[in-house]
Amino acid sequence: MTFVGKILVIVIVIFALFFLALSTVVFTTSRNWKEEVGKQKQLVSKSQTELSTVRTELQGRQNELQQAQADRKAQEDKLNAQLATLAEETKQAKAQLADQIKNLETAQENVRVAQAEAEARRSETETLRKQNSEVQGQANELKLAQTQLNDQIRELKRDLEVAQDNNRDLRDRVALLSGELRRQGLSADVRSIQPNTAAPAGDVEGVVEKVQGEYVEISVGSDDGVAERNELDVFRMNPPEYLGKIQIVSVSNDRSVGKIMGRTRQGLKIKEGDNVATKIRTRR
After folding, report:
1. Closest by alpha carbon to 264, among 227, 235, 223?
2. Is residue 238 part of a domain?
3. Domain-located, residue 256
4. I need a surface site. Which of 150, 205, 219, 254 has the fewest CB within 10 A?
């Protein structure tokens, strides 16, 4: 039973005693008033004693109620303080959560930027790889071209050595022939010796129209002053290259056939469209 219930019980008991006394007085009105008054006094004294006891108990219960209220208020204050502390901690936790969310968003943005940069680096790497492959291919082509040039240089050196040997041999032969001519009482001036092959009358220029083995057909003939056993130079204009000589073996009015004399310069092959002439001149 609660404290308030106990108080109500006490109050009910007091009222019950009061109504009991009242009913007793009414019931015994016909008796001796003196006796009844004495009895009622005794009852009243007893009731007052009980009332005093009840009041004392009520005062104690009130004191207990006040203490309980004070304790409850203290607990409420404590709970309110705890609630305030929890509210402040919740506020701080929310602020920390907001900061963490912001940091997380910043980190995600940094990750996106890093991924974009990584993708750009991958693209650059792929481009550089392709460029490196192309450069490597060009380097291989240059190495091949260098190898070919080195081969041509070695061939030219061999041709130069052969030409130098031939030149020395020709000089030796010319010296021998000159000495023999002088012993025979003839002039050693080669300019006074008429060659077996005469040059064409006048300047002749034409082109190679057909090549068959060591024979070439050219676009000039007897009408242009070309005759059998004439020698013509063969050259190319683009790029400028001297190819060698041909000797005419057959002549018609506007065509001639010549035979390639010896090896062509640097081993180049005479082709259709190459030029032939008695004198090599730059075309304008």
Report:
1. 235
2. yes
3. yes
4. 150
Distance CA 138, CA 174 (A): 51
216 occurs within a structural domain? yes
22-56 confidence digits (pLDDT tens): 777 666 665 566 676 777 788 888 888 888 888 88
CATH code of the domain containing 240: 2.40.10.170
- Give the C-alpha separation, 277 to 234, whole Å: 7
The continuous run of DSSP H or E covering 206 comes out as strand 205-212
- pLDDT band at 211; cut points 50, 70, 90: very high
The answer to pTM > 0.70 is no
Residue 202 lies in a domain: yes
More confident residue, 26 or 70: 70
Residue 260: which residues within 8 A CB-CB, separation 6 or more? 214, 215, 216, 234, 244, 245, 246, 270
CB 3 within 8 A of CB 65: yes
Pairwise CA distance, residues 216 & 258, whole Å: 5
